[in-house]
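Lab meeting tomorrow. Look over both lines:
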Amino acid sequence: MCVVKLLSHPKKQIGQAVGVQSRRAMPNAAAIVGFCLWVFIFMVQGLNGDEVTYDGTSLIINGQRKLLISGSIHYPRSTPEMWPGLIDTAKEGGLDCIQTYVFWNMHEPEQGKFNFDGRFDLVSFVKLIHSKGLYVSLRIGPYIESEWNYGGFPYWLHDIPDIIFRTDNEPFKREMERFTTMIVNMMKAKSLFASQGGPIVITQIENEYGNVERSFPGGHSYVVWAANMVMGLNTGVPLVMCKQPDAPDPVINTCNGMYCGDTFIGPNSDKKPRMWTEAWTGWFQVFGGSMPHRPVEDIAYAVARFFAKNGTFVNYYMYHGGTNFGRSGGPFITTSYDYDAPIDEYGIPREPKWTHLKNLNIAIKLCSDAVLYGRPEILSLGPSQEAHVYSGEAGLCAAFLSNRDSKADVKVNFQNLTYDLPAWSVSILADCQNVAFNTAKVNAQPYSLKSNTQMKLESSKLLSEKFMEGIGWKIFKENIGGFEDTQFQNKGLLEHISTTKDTTDYLWYLISVDVDEDEPFLRSNISPLLAIGSHGYAVHVFLNNNFVGSANGNKTSPSFNVEIPISLSPGKNDIAILSVMVGLPNSGAHFERKSAGISNVAIQGFKDGTHDLSEELWTYQIGLVGERLNIYCNDDSHAMNWTSPISNQSLLWYKIIIDAPDGDGPVSLDLSSMGKGQIWINGENIGRYWVSFLAPPGDCTRCDYRGNYSLHKCATNCGQPSQTLYHIPRSLLQPTGNFLILFEEIGGEPSKVSILTRSNSNVCAHVSETHPPSIQSSERMESKTKSQMLHEDGEPRLQLECPAGKIIFSIQFASFGNPQGVCGGFIKGTCHLVETANVVEKACIGQSGCSITVSSVQFGADPCIGIVKSLAVEAICN
């Protein structure tokens, strides 16, 4: 933003606002009185609230066991205008609960100055979830990792004397306790804990500390301190620590991962329930990496396995990933935090993932009474097959039939009935007879909450033509080296992070080098080499104000060395190196000690050998001229020398005034023609772009949901830019006169930039055939809720429906076999019936909607006997 509103809260004001000061600052007697006062308030509030406890089976709310399905939606990664739709879609998807971290660095960017406005309005977010009838899982951290800048810590924490992050260190614990206390008391002041009648039923302190605990001598004592500190705040709800096997009682240790049903040993007490706080629905993307996708069949398998093995709480991480606006992403993390989640970055359900997981959630809920109150039993059905059965009084029974074989489909016998189990799948029998759901059989119908359509990005022609013609583009040339009056000098090379203190991505290193006229390279074709070593993350190099080259590290290895040929002239030569960050370190032990920026500089090729410049007197400039002038704000209070555009040069600011595209759908900026830089719209920093950093060529054709997932399968964008589309939330756009700014570091073609909008002209569905169990006396479930999982004739149907007033104009894609991909990107698999399109067109063209039975009988042939087939269709409505 152009102006960040900070609320100044000295300690006394914090105490007045939230009810109590930090307990460390209080005398012992006062601490006792304060503690007793809070106990009294908690007891009074609890009379109107919910009692939340737990046992070895589940969370217990007001005396009732709860099987909860949760999903992560992070409030700063979307906008307040998006929140209602995201929560509604999550609820329709079968969720009971929304999980979020608390983002310390966003709330306290300067020590003692707070920001809880707009995207950072935590209270409003929690209240909105409550109004939708859902619970909240609040992960206070305050360390969160989350691919977030500095793991959620504000940078000023680094500069506190003698501080060591995340260990038994008094300066760190003091600040952590102060912030945690403030957040807890803020929630209490608004009665947001379940014990007060609010939605928060779980809190979390720290985050995956077990990964680094052994790196700290005071690791375990810190864990105990953190637990006691939060328990002393009397939230009235259970406290969890994820990936923390030694979590002290009564803290529940939980699992994060891909397959917690099979990898989680379990809580460290039989009096604690099995909880999965991060069931990874995909993975994050990095600049310079391909785009990872996790097949929904694999996610469903993993989640079903967890519930089969006594799990009663699962949280999908992420359910909506969102956007890393501004400079909030961690090292090399893309601006998009889509995460291949069930709700995509723009707030649109991703099919078939959203519907398939919705159907899974429904099936699991059908089993809830049996899982929560039944007796568990494990039965072997084969070498890699087993049944987890929960039974009880009055015929209470549910079963999970698992086939852990990653290659072979099998038939198994269970309770005198035969069931087909595809490889790497779980069949859920909500009554121990009928298959309510199989994780490998995708039955994804079009999204039904809003117009039954799967949205697709389309170019906004009017705006694209405007961009293509270059209408309105102006440039401002960044001054190499910045302002002379704000430069400073230091002997030797300064570390980047501690110099800029996360106020900017950019730090200039400037030096002048004198060259004698008798240097041999002045009369030869051999150029001297400028050798630069950097701890990360990127550099742009200029000689005598001319761009001569760039280099960068990557997510795995931020540090790098580069040698750039340069043409030196007799006399004075000015060397300017722009060091660039792409997010601060955010993980591992002692990440606050990690360095960035230039580590050594030398010039090779002088007659007397290499000239090492590392310990010479350097001049520095923090940030850019454009940043200093707030060039991204639509503010005429300062004179700017904007000129006609010159394309494909480094260090240029581009601006254009645009109108918003028609409609109210999500908007993207296509920056395929640009290099590296940042984006602003109406003063809001949309994020970093880095289109020129390509993913390795790799293999983006291999995708099989069967077997343990890895980032090396089911990827896309091999050899392509990691991200070309950048989300601009509708709420940031005005109907006319929007001020778009691009800062380009290395060179691009702004005339080829285009605006994309979401179109609702495409409808999709992807449905698998099913194999009902061989039941000699087939009895349908009597419950209406259960029967909705089956079709009236026992066969699955693919259904398409156009928005009101439109008909199916054409079939964009149709395949019966084993098609792959998602709407807008379906591709034929190794098995495909060539007559599919004819059958679908005959049934659907000219209709407002159509329904097709998914079976070989319907299509008159079986393209691949012996495997489970599916039908995928994308149609265009007009």
